[in-house]
Design brief:
It is a single chain. This protein has about 90 residues and is α+β, with helices and mostly antiparallel strands. The protein has a single domain (about 1-85), classed as Double Stranded RNA Binding Domain, CATH 3.30.160.250. Helix content is about 35%, strand content about 15%. The protein has two helices and three strands; from the N terminus they run H-E-E-E-H. It has helices spanning about 1-10, 40-60, and strands at about 15, 25, 35. It is elongated, with a radius of gyration of 14 Å. The two termini are about 25 Å apart. The model has no long low-confidence stretch (mean pLDDT about 90).
Length: about 90
Amino acid sequence: MLTEYIEAAMRKATYEKLEDGTYCGKIPECPGTIAFSETLYECQIELRSVLEGWLLVKIRHGDHLPVIDGLDLNKGIPALEGTVAHG
């Protein structure tokens, strides 16, 4: 299910070619996920890595994850004892 979630989130990604010819990628449904790179392909790879790290931090802290294309990772993810959920 995690792989499906990542794939669904990546389909929501938006990319922009910047004035200097580099690329910027974001996933609006996942606030804070942003990547920059020299090529669109490299930007896509970097954004996937950023998304994976973002998910790990959110899950570790017991934060609510956005439901993407009906995929809800919040079900069955127990918050670790002593962690504080972030908004």
